[in-house]
Amino acid sequence: MFTYLVNRLIQSIGVLLVVALLSFVIFNYVGDPINNMVGQEATVEDREELRERLGLNDSVFVQFIRFIGNAMQGEFGISYQFQRSVSDLILERMPATLELVFISALFALVAGIGMGVYTGLRRDSWLSRFILTASLVGVSLPTFVIGILLIYIFSVTLDWLPSFGRGETTKVGSWDSGLLTLSGWTAIILPSITLGLFQLTIILRLVRAEMLEVLRTDFIKFARARGLSRRAVNFGHALKNTMVPVITIAGLQIGTLVAFSIITETVFQWPGMGLLFIQGVEFADVPIMGAYLLLAALVFVIINLIVDLMYAAVDPRLRVSAQRGKSTA
Amino acid sequence: MTDTRDKPLLDVRGMKVGLPTRRGHLPILNGVDLHVKAGEVLGVVGESGAGKSITGLAVIGLLEPPARIDGGDVWFDGRRIDSLSGDDLRKIRGAEIGVIFQDPLTSLNPLYTIGYQLVETIRTHLDMSAEDGEKRAVELLDEVGIPAAASRLRAYPHEFSGGMRQRVVIALALCANPRLIIADEPTTALDVSIQAQIIALLKRLCREHGTAVMLITHDMGVIAETADRVSVMYAGRVIEEGPVAEVVRNASHPYSRGLMGSIPVIGERIKRLPQIRGAMPRVGAVPKGCAFAPRCPLVRDLCRSERPAVMPGRATSAACWQYSPRWEEANPAEDVDA
Questions:
Q1: B3 CB burial (10 A radius; 0-12, 13-18, 19+)
Q2: Contact residues, chain B, for A320 at CB < 8 Å
Q3: Among residues A118, A325, B181, B236, which one has the fewest Cβ atoms lying within 10 Å of its Cβ?
Q4: Residue B231: which domain range?
């Protein structure tokens, strides 16, 4: 188990280094940063001096190492647009995005697995057919359309829920939480449904397909032949066996939630990292874009690491093969 | 059916199973009659597709939909069980009728330890605490010959070999001391040296516990060694039934004779094994009269028009017209084989 973990960690660091390189390239080679910083009147000497001070005359390799060193300390430079440290900006916005992602992921997982199991077990009921048809709509509608539709119905027409913002937030240490107030909760409902709907349908269809597959296996037939109760067979034996692929996909999907949140945050004017990124793009604010890229990669890598650990927790065969350093197909 | 000696433990009468398809109703079992007496081993033989496994599944109500029972009834210990509701039948499965399937590699849930699966089954059927259940699980594993049983409780199925897994499956089938075990090709997936061990184990355990066995197989060797009585199935029916020695040496039905004739004998040098010409009719294409008529060397016109019932033959009972008084009047059929 330990060597397995170390292996995965080394791989993760590799991935992060590659993304850091990309981020560094963007940071340094999309236009001349000096031009972005100084005014029209700056002399050539001024420019050279700034270039020297920022270390831009060093070799690319030295600059890259310095960039990694800074990134590891959470230092991504100054935002051109806000004239503030990028890491401060991101830290300020992070709680909003993470809370949104967390609530949508929870929504997608709970509702997706629940409906997937139901439609898998009751293949022919009219409710299953309805859920499956409705889920097609969920897959085919783009996120922003769903968001706008929800705003139109629940904010404009019915006036039940706010159409933008996070509502009232409370400071818990340095974490700015919207989950402690009623207005915060009403504000997060529409964005998290918008963000999670696509993931929900994917998980629903996956769980259903896996359930149908597992219910046909010999060990389910044997579990029935042993006289186990319907509940033990369906939930104890069948559902657990659907979990390995579901964890894989759900893990990847939660990663994409962070990415998708850019659109949702724009539609709902949600003050998170995605909105910050979009604003960064509009102003060609390279430090923000680079930092966001690296952060998104970090989130993906962490989620994948957790997914790998969960495999081992669910499937004992993976534990053994990892220990012996070989995989069983 | 005509058995009045003592009441059978399991009595299947006129079992019909069909499969509704888009092109109409396909009959799979066309009236299976068989019985198992308490403590005996009944061998059910026949070629692939004869309906052996379906019969076993139909008895315990585990047919895969859309296949369903169309007629006939199943009696277990004097009680009709084919009409029971799902939950009542479930309480008989595992508790009174244990089942062993063909492939031990896939019969166990890979995600749970064998201890978990044993204790789960034990506690479903017997009122026991978790500790007592575990104790019984160790006893069972001991009994089926798994070394260091107590320490193996925490092991997962993939940590066992095929033969060992089939021992675990047998332990699972024996959890609640059932009175009948339906063993569907229990050794087909194992290699030959392990097969003999598993059959010997099954035989010993059932003798010790007084458990009856319905042993479904196409392996005549296994039947000859293990069974007390044999039912031979052909195209969804039982066509011969009798004591094992008689069926093997002195079968009444031409099909059974052909089947026994195709068993190789060690030490006898022959160029080619005798075989029955033709193939078993496909499901849904079973001829009107005797299903074996198209392949039968003795066929008469009667065989092609009417289906024979099971009647006393030589030393066994067989569904063949040659043991009927009407046989003498029947004319030899013209050969329809081109």
A1: exposed
A2: 158-159
A3: A325
A4: 1-38+46-96+221-263+286-338
